[in-house]
Structure formats: structure tokens, C-alpha cells
Design brief:
The chain is an alpha/beta fold. The protein contains seven helices and 17 strands. The strands form four sheets. Strands 4-3-2-1-13-14 form a six-stranded mixed β-sheet, covered by helices on one side. A six-stranded mixed β-sheet has the order 5-6-7-10-12-11, with no helix packed on it. β15, α4 and β16 form a beta-alpha-beta unit. α6 runs antiparallel to α7. The structure holds manganese (II) ion. Manganese (II) ion binds next to loops.
Length: 360
């Protein structure tokens, strides 16, 4: 039998860090990719579509989107669509899961339930609340042997580490399913030989780089063997390019940028360029980099983390001591904090030279 697995669509995500037009475009991408998923279910003549959670973003999904989704899934009938709600779309009393749905769409509750599809026993379980520190596999009925599992949870985590249905791969192995279709982790990947996370169907941000999509599984119930492959269905991808300016000109670094990104489709790539190394004083300003990287990308942002020239051997001046203190903190920091501290270092050193803060 053939199964198509996809999760973590987060339809109607706010994309709050993007400007309004781009956020709207990304929500349209999410819906277009979901539509593509439904087409693939039809083209690949699968026996069921498995959606292990976070189909919706319960704080921001609009009623119209829920209805659009259900109408689309209805077009697959009689193909079963099995949904195990996740932490972003838990089955609560006052949720869109209480709306009417097509007969072929089945939503698992927050206790394990079974659906029979083509002779396979497909067991599923959903989130009932946003936070669930209990191991979802601990409550699996002990006398049962599942063929397929569909659920949302956090792999190789303990209750102390995760409030998102933490479970162990050892326990998953003990249950003896041929395949586990699991949602929650947005990076696509195998769970050993036991199953897989399909990852977020359409990536949500720069922390979800690379191709995203769905998983197509082929199972043989008699031999309990399986084959599976990843289908890159996402419309867009997020990529970060780090350009180290040490020992080369801005022109060379830009040529390197073009070489590194040559294979990516600009119209469907959101790109972040991190400038590191020296050159903040003498190199192109961030605004020039923004222009050089180009407007062909779906979105392009420059993260300027270049350091100003600093004499580290000068602990006797205010400038040297300020720099040492900030550099020590920069070494410990990451992400946004690192960017902020780098900016503080640059502006602070300029201020100590009597220059205006806007000159960076
Ligand atoms: Mn998710």
C-alpha cells in the first residue's frame, strides 16, 4: 500500500517578521503547496493521506482557510485523510475541529484510535492541549500491534526537556509498527528505520533551510517491509549565505555569493546574507550590499556582523577596553544578540572617535 505523509503546514501563519506583502505571499505559498500535495496524493494513487499535526495555526487561521482546506480534501474522497492534530492545532472544544468535515477526513482525538485502511491498522493520536509533557507512546494500548502510527511529538526528548509530547525512539521501536508518520520537527528526516518526519510542508523561516515537502511511503503488510522517499514540494526555500570578508575585497566576496547561489531560483528563495570578518570601516556599507545582492530574490536581507578594526593589544585606552569587553560578549552570543552587540561595538568605537552614530 502507498501512503503520502505531510505535516506542519501552519496554514495562515502570521510570518510576523516579514513585511505585509511578503507575509501575504508566503501564506499564498503555503496554500499553493498544500494544493500541490493534494494533487500528488491523486497522481501517486495513494491509499491514504496522513497529516500528523500543525495543519493549522490555531491563533491565526481564518475560518475561510479551514473551509477551503476541507473542500479541497473532500475532492480526494473516498481516499481517507487521517489527521492527528498537533500543538498548533489541538482538538479543543471551541476549535475549528468541531466544524463539519467531509466524510473522508478523519481526525484522531487525544487518545489512541484506529482506522482500517486497505487491511492496515493505522493508529493515531492528536494533541488535546497546546502543551503535553506526557509521552504519547506510554498510553498506546498494550495488547495492540500497529501497522502504522500517526502522531505529533518531540523525538528523543524527556518530559523535563519538552512539553510537546516527548517520546523515545526505543519505545517507538517496541511498538513494532511498520511505519511511524510523525509531525512536529520541521526539518525533514528519518527516525532510524522506524519512520520519518516529513518536516514543515512549506518552510517557515531561516531556521528551516533547504528543500521541504512530503514523504511517500510504500508498505508491504505481509512482509512488513517498506520503501520511502522525500518529495520536495515546497514552493520556496530559505537560505543563509555567510560571506567572510577577511583577506578579500567586497567584489571577490560578491562573486563568491553569486557562485554559491547560482543553482537557486531567485523568485522562490528568501536569502539572508551574513557579512562577517573585518571591513566595517572600509568595505561597502550594508545598503550597498543590499543593492548588489539584488532585487531578484523573493526576499533578501543583509545581516551586517563585520567588525571594525580594533587594536586588541591596547588595554590602556577606553577604546581598547570597550572593544575587549564587547568582543568577549560577542564571542558568547549568537543570532540577534550577536548582531546587536556587533552594532554596539561599531557605533561605540565610532563614538569614541567623535564620529556620528549614523555613519556606520
Ligand atoms: Mn509545527
Amino acid at each position: 500500500m502507498r501512503l503520502l505523509q505531510a505535516s506542519d503546514m501552519h496554514l495562515d501563519s502570521p510570518f510576523a517578521t516579514l513585511d505585509d506583502d511578503l507575509a501575504r505571499a508566503r501564506r499564498q505559498d503555503q496554500m499553493a503547496t498544500f494544493q500541490r500535495l493534494v494533487e500528488v496524493a491523486r497522481e501517486e494513487t495513494v491509499d491514504a493521506l496522513l497529516l500528523p499535526g500543525d495543519l493549522f495555526e490555531h491563533r491565526s487561521t481564518r475560518l475561510g482557510t479551514v473551509k477551503w482546506t476541507m473542500d479541497l480534501l473532500a475532492t480526494l474522497a473516498p481516499l481517507p485523510v487521517l489527521i492527528a492534530p498537533g500543538n498548533h492545532d489541538p482538538i479543543q472544544k471551541a476549535s475549528f475541529w468541531s466544524l463539519e468535515r467531509p466524510d473522508n477526513v478523519r481526525v484522531f482525538s487525544d487518545s489512541w484510535q484506529v482506522e482500517e485502511v486497505g487491511g492496515a491498522r493505522i493508529w493515531g493520536r492528536g494533541f488535546g492541549e497546546e502543551h503535553e509533557p506526557d509521552d504519547p507512546l506510554a498510553s498506546f494500548p498494550p495488547a495492540e500491534r500497529p501497522d502504522v502510527l500517526v502522531f505529533h511529538g518531540d523525538l528523543d526528548k524527556t518530559a523535563a526537556e519538552s512539553r510537546y509530547a516527548p517520546f523515545s525512539r526505543a519505545r517507538l521501536g517496541e511498538l513494532g509498527a511498520i511505519w511511524a508518520a510523525v509531525g512536529h520537527i520541521h526539518k525533514p528526516g528519518a527516525i532510524g528505520d522506524l519512520g520519518a518526519y516529513a518536516g514543515s510542508l512549506e518552510p517557515l523561516g531561516f531556521d528551516e533551510p533547504g528543500p521541504h515537502g512530503a514523504v511517500l511511503v510504500e508498505l508491504d503488510l505481509a512482509s512488513r517491509q517498506k520503501k520511502w522517499r522525500f518529495l520536495p514540494l515546497a514552493r520556496s526555500r530559505y537560505e543563509t549565505v555567510v560571506l567572510d570578508l577577511a583577506g578579500r575585497s567586497d567584489e571577490d566576496a560578491l562573486a563568491d555569493f553569486h557562485a554559491q547561489t547560482a543553482d537557486w531560483d531567485p523568485a522562490h528563495t528568501l536569502i539572508r546574507v551574513e557579512l562577517v570578518g573585518p571591513g566595517a570601516e572600509t568595505g561597502w556599507p550594508a545598503s550597498r550590499w543590499q543593492g548588489e545582492v539584488g532585487g531578484a530574490w523573493q526576499a533578501a536581507e543583509i545581516r551586517d556582523q563585520r567588525l571594525p578594526p580594533v587594536d586588541l593589544n591596547d588595554p590602556f585606552t577606553v577604546r581598547g577596553r570597550y572593544a575587549q569587553r564587547l568582543l568577549a560578549e560577542i564571542a558568547e552570543a549568537d543570532g540577534k544578540e550577536r548582531q546587536l552587540l556587533t552594532l554596539a561595538l561599531r557605533i561605540g568605537l565610532q563614538a569614541l572617535e567623535g564620529r556620528r552614530a549614523g555613519d556606520h
